[in-house]
Each structure stands twice: as structure tokens, then as C-alpha cells.
Request: fold
Amino acid sequence: MNDLNFTTVTRGQESALAVNKVLKNTYMLLGLTLAFSAFTAMLSFNAPALSPWIFLIGAYGFLFATHALANSPWGLVTTFGFTGFIGYGIGPMIGALLSTSAGSEMVMTALGGTAFIFFGLSGWVLVSRRDFSFLRGFIAAGCLVLIAAIIISLIWPMPALQLAMSVAFMLFSSAIILYQTSEIINGGERNYILATITLYVSIYNIFMSLLHLLMAFSGDD
Reply:
């Protein structure tokens, strides 16, 4: 009986150490990739805007490569490639907004709102230790719907659809933050590269959705 209890405690300690390691590596890499995105965005402030199709193909290309290489050191290379490409792609729009006082205020508001949502949701999961694995089906279905909506919006731009997509992306990304953080602390995710890239995409989507909503309500979109 004592041996069984000792084995159980040891396994529990090993599991806790593994969770802490994934959390530490995830948030460290997430911070680095966000900083790298900000750097590449600044480099492209005055550059021509990328075609939406080029941006979409490049982003998904890097994303698929990162998932394929997540278990090798090359996964870190594609992670920074993906996040750097995203930063460079949105740089021209951010640069144009920051050149005006109203635009600067919208960017700061969107950044503040994104930070509040991310830290609020992540903190809730970390403190409550709740299991949000039940969101898996919603996330899978939502991903397909949003990809279809993106393609439709590129072919037939409609302001109403853009607003609806911004709200949908915020809800969808919030669900992913809850799910991914829960997966880490409950042992469902042990690859910090995959965890980082998932949280990064969620943060990006929330930031861009808030920015688009602010621009639309201000009449600048």
C-alpha cells in the first residue's frame, strides 16, 4: 500500500512539473513571438499592403508547416516565420492608423482590450482549473464556418458580414483561449510550440476584431 501511495504521489509530482514546464515555455515563447511580430510590423509601416490572398496563403502555409514540424527544432523557426509574417502583413494598416491621433487611440484601445480578454480568460482557467474540453466540437465547427466566411468576404466584400465576422472571431478565439489553457493544465497538451501558436492566433484574431469594430463604429472602416 505504501509503495502504491508513493508511486501515485511521484506520478502526480511528475505531472505537475510537466504542466509547469509547458506553461513556462508557452508563455515565454508567446511573449517572444508577440514582440517579434511588433518588430516586423514596425518594419512594414511604410510598405505597400499585401494582397489579402497572399496574406491568407502565406499565413496558412506557415501555420501548416509549424504544425508539421512542431516536434522538431524547426518548429521554432516556422513559429517565428509565421508570427513575423503576420506582423509584417498588418504593419501597413497599423502604421496608417498610428499616423493619426484617432487611429492611435483605436490601436491602443484594441491592444488594451485584447490584453484584458486574454489575461482574464487565461487567469480564470489557471485559478479555477476547470476542464473546457467540451468546447472541442464547437471549435472544430466554428473553424470551418469562419474559413468559409473569410473566403466569401474576399470574393464578395460586405460590410455587414465583416462586422459579424469580427464578433464571431472574438467569441471563437475566446473559446480557444479557454480550451487551450485548460488543455495545458489538465495534461492534454504537452507541446509548447503548438500551444503557443494556438494562443498567438487567438490573440491576433481578438486584436484585429476589436480594431475592425472600432474602425467601423468610428466610420473609418
Notes: The radius of gyration is 19 Å.
